[in-house]
């Protein structure tokens, strides 16, 4: 199997679009497309970025051994999301969540910053506030969630999260289940 075919196979197996893989690996969608069609060869650095976003590494990728189920995910396994607003830091906690269709993220919001507004979509969302106080905005309703509290909702309306504090960061886990 060619490298591009194997990358495409892993991407599809993980239920990702080319665009999602591009964002998670900090590369362009066009580059991912060319690699998958074997029109260009990735550098070792870009291949490592792609594989990390797919929840694997060079050794596993080129190994002919049967893959074991990954059970423990360390800080090094997290994938930073690069297209967040200023003052928002987000990391995916799991890289290989298919077939669970779950996307857990760790988010740090600087004071008075907010996530991007998400349009209505399918699934459910859950969150747990580790530190600080956040506002969950669902259309025109606002919910205040403090440290140690959690939220759960159906994302069938526009939604985003804001840190209203003027001096404290907010840290929380946000899990999207599709």
TrEMBL record:
SUPFAM superfamilies: lambda repressor-like DNA-binding domains, RmlC-like cupins. Keywords: DNA-binding. Gene3D superfamilies: Jelly Rolls (2.60.120.10), lambda repressor-like DNA-binding domains (1.10.260.40). One of its GO terms (cellular component) is cytosol. InterPro entries: Cro/C1-type_HTH, Cupin_2, Lambda_DNA-bd_dom_sf, RmlC-like_jellyroll, RmlC_Cupin_sf, TransReg_Diox_bact_type. One of its GO terms (molecular function) is DNA binding. The keyword DNA-binding applies. It holds the Pfam family HTH_3. Residues 7-61 form the HTH cro/C1-type domain. PANTHER family: HTH-TYPE TRANSCRIPTIONAL REGULATOR, TRANSCRIPTIONAL REGULATOR. This is XRE family transcriptional regulator. It comes from Defluviitoga tunisiensis.
